UniProtKB/TrEMBL annotation:
InterPro entries: DUF3298 (IPR021729), PdaC/RsiV-like_sf (IPR037126). Signal peptide: none annotated. It comes from Roseburia intestinalis L1-82. Residues 209-294 form the DUF3298 domain. It comes from the Bacteria. The chain crosses the membrane at residues 45-63. Keywords: Membrane, Transmembrane, Transmembrane helix. This is Anti-sigma-V factor RsiV.
Length: 302
């Protein structure tokens, strides 16, 4: 049996074990997200502008409303010479006795600060445009897939819920990170989180390997630290469970992260590794995160 077969078996096993609990959990998240969305509309949008040695101003872009279904609304703007707006690209709402959807699809819009000394060449701006286009395409693909599946299942007898929301997390002078949160329930619930990080100084989208010196082994120390944290959590709480050190089904055990593992940099500047439901433990564990201590990777960071 290959890895994909085992993954599907794990997913099927966990889904069949706790469908009722997962549905309740999903509905609680849906209600919470709706409340948060209402509160968000009541907040004043704050624009932060970078002030440096050269005078610079933020040039706001007037975006055309291409169709009645596309609602644009500025939400967050990070600091520095190159700004990124997060706008609402698609807002899809549906509610009935059996089907509920609360979808807010974001889109990143790069915005280059104008300066009297700026030349016609702007490699950072070009990189930023390329990065945001790539991220927007991925977000649209994920969202379209969830909405299409939701609409296709509307005539079924069961219950289903989907929710898509987002937030800009811990934007620093160096990094901009967007978190896309997707929830889906149809008899059982499943949560998926996606992180998109851009280096504001280069305009390039960051992969995990980009944080480390070229040729350095970052996979091993991070993976071993995560295993240590897993064991510590399981020892401290009998309700915590990870697929680790299992001699009966060793194929399920977490062995290491890879280049595509989700990550972000938190407010303290520490690397955080994130796993979706079912990746490293039972679905009941939900999305799990591990903050990697700075001293574990300090020698290999760029």
């Amino acid at each position: 049996m290959n890895t994909n077969d085992f993954y599907e078996l794990k997913k099927s096993y966990d889904t069949s074990q706790m469908p009722e609990k997962e549905v309740i959990k999903m509905k609680e998240k849906m209600h919470q997200a709706k409340a948060e969305k209402k509160n968000k509309h009541n907040k004043t949008i704050i624009t932060r502008i970078w002030v440096g040695a050269a005078a610079a101003i933020a040039a706001f872009v007037i975006l055309p409303n291409t169709s009645p279904s596309v609602a644009y609304a500025m939400e967050q703007i990070p600091l520095l010479g190159n700004l990124i707006e997060v706008v609402t690209f698609r807002d899809y709402q549906y509610s009935s006795d059996r089907n509920n959807a609360d979808v807010n699809v974001p889109q990143l819009v790069p915005e280059t600060v104008a300066s009297t000394e700026k030349t016609t060449e702007d490699p950072v701006g070009e990189n930023l445009k390329k990065s945001t286009d790539e991220i927007n395409a991925e977000i649209e693909k994920i969202s379209d897939s969830l909405i299409a599946e939701f609409k296709q299942n509307m005539n079924n007898e069961g219950y289903q819920d989907i929710m898509i929301k987002h937030e800009v997390i811990n934007t620093t002078d160096d990094y901009f990170t967007l978190k896309l949160m997707c929830y889906q329930a149809a008899g059982s619930g499943y949560e998926m989180d996606y992180y998109y990080t851009i280096d504001l100084k280069t305009g390039e989208r960051l992969a995990l390997k980009d944080l480390f010196k070229e040729g350095s082994d970052y996979i091993t120390p991070i993976s071993e630290n995560i295993k240590s944290q897993m064991r510590g959590q399981m020892d401290a709480d009998e309700n915590v469970s990870y697929w680790l050190d299992d001699t009966e089904v060793p194929e399920w055990n977490f062995t290491s992260i890879n280049d595509d593992t989700s990550f972000y940099i938190n407010a303290d500047g520490n690397l955080v590794i994130s796993f979706n439901e079912g990746d490293v433990g039972p679905m009941s564990m939900g999305v799990v995160e591990f903050t990697i201590p700075h001293d574990v990777i300090a020698d290999i960071l760029k």
